[in-house]
From TrEMBL:
<feature type="transmembrane region" description="Helical">
    <location>
        <begin position="205"/>
        <end position="227"/>
    </location>
</feature>
<feature type="transmembrane region" description="Helical">
    <location>
        <begin position="146"/>
        <end position="167"/>
    </location>
</feature>
<keyword id="KW-0812">Transmembrane</keyword>
<feature type="transmembrane region" description="Helical">
    <location>
        <begin position="234"/>
        <end position="257"/>
    </location>
</feature>
<protein>
    <recommendedName>
        <fullName>ABC transporter permease</fullName>
    </recommendedName>
</protein>
<feature type="transmembrane region" description="Helical">
    <location>
        <begin position="179"/>
        <end position="199"/>
    </location>
</feature>
<keyword id="KW-1133">Transmembrane helix</keyword>
<feature type="transmembrane region" description="Helical">
    <location>
        <begin position="295"/>
        <end position="312"/>
    </location>
</feature>
<keyword id="KW-0472">Membrane</keyword>
<feature type="transmembrane region" description="Helical">
    <location>
        <begin position="12"/>
        <end position="35"/>
    </location>
</feature>
Length: 343
């Protein structure tokens, strides 16, 4: 066995062992860090009214309700609008006992607001009346469907970019990007069919949802394509970490960001797939309100990926891809790798 063969075998064994080890560390670390004890962190709530009663309630909550940021609003319409626009998670009117919430924004945050004001209403001898101004669809009471079809778009785009880069590295960059773009539309069509047709989960116009899903798949695809052309198969772990694991956990869909550790808020600000999932929820439940910043972050990542693709457009070989070619050409290397892994 030549020196090159031994080096190729070591690279293959290292790659085979690193990928499951990476999953073993990253997946439970990110998800358990998010899910193990969600609690309010500066959750915005409001007390409705301008009189002494409302001001007293607001002052007491500001002093004693840990994890909540309390403000006052002038009347019920202002409270309802603030909840619909996701400026506050809950708005309570102590004069009537009405509590305005939007469960489509987050089931956990809605429950946190309800529990807070249920105690306030009980202390004041008022019957709490919950008014859900943006309810979840009857077919999605847990509010998880947008998350899952969004994950489908992320993974579909990621795999499209990876496969094009690894299997057809000799194609022109323009052709590779075109293939990823076509696959992004296909992925979005499949996910839209699930969400709006087959299971009839989401209300409203499916076109906006399909556009966001296509954008999610496209940005995941071109970022993976560009990264693979730049650093080779190592981009698999980078994409899985940043686009899938970090993007999903930092999206605010599994756990609302105002009930998550600050680390996830920071990732949400910068990761395109986290922003994409946030935009998907906005178009599914809130008529697209607030998607501008989400789309800008996605566009910035897409533009950066296109710059990398332009810089690497003359490269034919993908870094590290030769090791994969050796697998089919030299069965002895494969056998040696298997023997080393089992030793």
């Amino acid at each position: 066995m030549t020196t090159n063969d031994r080096l190729a075998r070591r690279r293959i064994v290292t790659g085979v062992l690193m990928l499951p080890l990476f999953f073993l560390i990253a997946l439970p670390g990110l998800f358990l860090g998010l899910l193990h004890s969600p609690a309010p962190h500066e959750v915005e709530v409001a007390v409705i009214g301008t009189g002494p009663q409302a001001q007293t309630v607001a002052n007491q909550l500001a002093a004693h309700a840990k994890g909540f940021e309390v403000q006052t609003l002038s009347d019920a319409d202002a409270g309802r609008n603030a909840v619909q626009d996701r400026e506050v998670r809950a708005a309570y009117d102590p004069a009537t006992g009405d509590l305005y919430v939007a469960s489509a924004g987050s089931v956990q945050a809605t429950e946190a607001g309800r529990a807070l004001f249920a105690a306030v209403a009980q202390a004041g001898g008022t019957a709490l009346q919950v008014r859900d101004v943006v309810p979840l669809p009857t077919a999605d009471r847990l509010g998880t469907s947008a998350l899952y079809i969004g994950i489908g778009a992320i993974v579909g785009g990621f795999l499209s970019g990876l496969i094009v880069a690894m299997i057809a590295p000799g194609l022109r960059v323009r052709t590779q990007v075109s293939v990823v773009a076509v696959m992004s539309v296909v992925v979005a069509g499949i996910e839209t069919f699930y969400g709006w047709v087959l299971f009839d989960i989401f209300p409203g116009n499916a076109a906006a949802g399909a556009a966001v899903l296509a954008g999610i798949a496209l940005v995941a695809g071109v970022v993976t394509l560009a990264g693979t052309r730049l650093i080779g198969p190592a981009m698999v772990m980078v994409s899985i970490l940043l686009l899938v694991l970090c993007g999903v956990t930092a999206s605010g869909l599994p756990v609302p960001l105002d009930m998550a550790p600050a680390f996830y808020n920071w990732m949400h600000d910068v990761l395109p797939t986290a922003r994409g999932l946030s935009a998907l929820r906005s178009v599914c439940y809130f008529d697209g309100e607030g998607v501008g910043v989400d789309l800008l972050v996605m566009a910035a990542w897409g533009l950066a990926a296109m710059v990398v693709l332009a810089v690497t457009r003359k490269k034919v070989a993908v870094p590290g891809n030769g090791a994969f070619g050796n697998l089919g050409a030299d069965e002895a290397v494969v056998a040696g790798a298997a023997a080393s892994a089992s030793a």
